[in-house]
Design a protein that fits this description.
The protein has 508 residues and is α/β, with parallel strands linked by helices. It has 19 helices and 22 strands. A hairpin with a 5-residue loop joins strand 2 and strand 3.
């Protein structure tokens, strides 16, 4: 009898251990968690920064405005001062804020991967234009290639916490600018069905690339019906002037219904004030100028209000992608955008570290968590980037995906319900076996409330040593190699691929 009881108890323990070891069936914190808990600016701070931004637009205005845009702005209520600067009165700016899209869909070619931008939801994605790739074999940086772009795209296609993919590197082995833009778009549609983003070197490249995207979408005009690729544009050049080529791209993208991120990328102490309040005021004014431009051309057009504060090391002038100032400024930028009710885009995880090391972890963790807690809707540059955006790393994509999961879990917060408070479970455990490990209350919480890392090491030191004492970099390298060896998607049919290759020079 005693033997039988022990056997039943041992079997129950084995079942419990197996259950605890099994992978969770539910993601406890998927992308799209709610942000906004961190508010570095008070209500009077927000109002003062906003008022200063509007004053800059009304009294200083924008310089180097292309003729076509100047005429459209003047027709909408702007004026031109004796210096030739276009002044945007407060009433015009606030009217355009009211007209602007507050939420919109970033479509994936797979509808299940589409995301809603705006409101309070937070999504991590990618960005950047790295000219260097951290080589998986040598561990050294080399020039980024078109093959790298294909590999990065299919690697991230497997990562649950990267919500959209912007080309993260520049194919430096494609010298022709048109071929570069075409092959970049091709790499995206071939290797992922997530929402994507790219950039157009000049407006003349937009029409032909739309033809490529129409083929991928299923026919002429189909892309515009459900655009699955947005563009990154910087139509405003700090300080306070427009860039003609980028403005031309804006007009073309609106013509083809290509959603856009209008990115302001001022640098504190270089192209904007070194004081954080002054920086935020100028940067906000510049991004509002982009918003006015877009909504004068097409009211309510889907635009991400991408007010990206960038920092330089004032001792050397070098761009600094990590650090407390970057964390603070991007969080404040997200707060400002959300205060205005606009879909916000900020940048984080732009570590200055070249290696996957302690500096990498500190800078990425601090900046990405701050941006998420502040409620940045789209957090760019947050996956795979190293070396102050000059580098991209396969290992970093793997590590950052796990970091994003932890951040999403922090954003999800704590659900306080009668069941979660666990009064009955506490009584049962204390009056019973004296612990909670086998209780149903624990089993339910195990999958619902906890994220279990696939990469981070939680073993005892002895077990870690027995397994080769590997660090996170080597584990991530192994995972990246496995994905690249096995995941070879081709999201274009043979007919679509043939049609694209007949029309364009596809180099891979």
């Amino acid at each position: 009898m005693g033997t039988e009881r022990r056997s039943r108890r041992a079997g129950g323990r084995s079942e419990r251990l197996a259950l605890r070891a099994a992978p969770p069936t539910v993601n406890p914190a998927p992308p799209g968690q709610i942000g906004g808990q961190y508010r570095p600016l008070t209500e009077p701070d927000l109002q003062d920064i906003y008022d200063t931004a509007l004053r800059l637009l009304a009294e200083l205005g924008m310089g180097e405005v292309p003729d076509r845009l100047r005429d459209d702005l003047v027709a909408a209520g702007a004026s031109v001062d004796p210096r030739g600067r276009v002044l945007l009165p407060r009433a015009l700016v606030e009217d355009m804020i009211d007209r602007a899209a507050k939420t919109f869909t970033l479509h994936g070619r797979d509808p299940n991967r589409s995301i809603e931008v705006g409101g309070e939801r937070v999504y991590f994605g990618t960005g950047g234009a790295a000219v260097n790739t951290l080589d998986l074999d040598s561990g050294q940086y080399r020039s980024s290639t078109l093959a790298d772009l294909h590999d990065f795209t299919r690697l991230q296609d497997t990562l649950d916490n990267v919500a959209w993919f912007t080309r993260c590197c520049i194919a430096t082995d494609v010298p022709d600018m048109f071929d570069l833009d075409v092959n970049t778009a091709y790499a995206l549609v071939k290797n992922t069905t997530k929402p994507t983003a790219t950039a157009f070197t000049i407006a003349g490249h937009v029409d032909p690339i739309i033809a490529l995207l129409d083929i991928a979408a299923g026919g002429e005009g189909k892309f515009a019906e459900r655009p699955f690729m947005k563009t990154h544009i910087s139509p405003v050049i700090s300080p306070m002037r427009f860039g003609e080529d980028a403005v031309d791209v804006v007009y073309k993208c609106i013509e083809h219904n290509i959603p856009m991120s209008c990115i302001t990328a001022a640098q504190a102490g270089a192209t904007a004030p070194a004081t954080m309040a002054g920086f935020l005021a100028q940067s906000l004014a510049e991004t509002l100028a982009s918003l006015v431009m877009v909504n004068v051309i097409s009211p309510g057009f889907p635009m991400v209000f991408s007010n990206w504060p960038l920092v330089i090391d004032l001792r050397s002038g070098a761009f600094a992608g990590g650090g407390g100032e970057t964390a603070l400024l991007n969080a404040a930028s997200a707060q400002l955008s959300n205060w205005l009710g606009l879909p916000s885009g900020v940048a984080s995880s732009m570590t200055d570290a070249k290696a996957i090391d302690a500096q990498y972890g500190v800078e990425k963790g601090m900046t990405s968590l701050a941006a998420a807690l502040a409620g940045g809707n789209l957090i760019y540059e947050s996956s795979g980037m190293t070396a102050a955006l000059l580098g991209a790393s396969f290992e970093a994509f793997i590590l950052d995906d796990e970091m994003h999961a932890m951040t999403y879990r922090a954003l999800r917060g704590i659900e306080v319900t009668e069941d979660n408070l666990g009064f009955d479970a506490i009584c049962e455990a204390i009056l019973g076996e004296g612990h909670f490990l086998g209780g149903q209350h624990t089993y339910q919480a195990m999958e619902r409330d906890y994220f279990y890392p696939k990469l981070a090491d939680r073993e005892q030191p002895s077990k870690w040593q027995e397994d080769g004492a590997r660090d996170a970099w080597s584990r991530a390298k192994e995972r990246a190699r496995a994905v690249l060896a096995s995941h070879r998607p081709d999201y274009l049919s043979a007919r679509q691929d043939s049609a694209i290759r007949e029309r364009f020079t596809i180099l891979r």
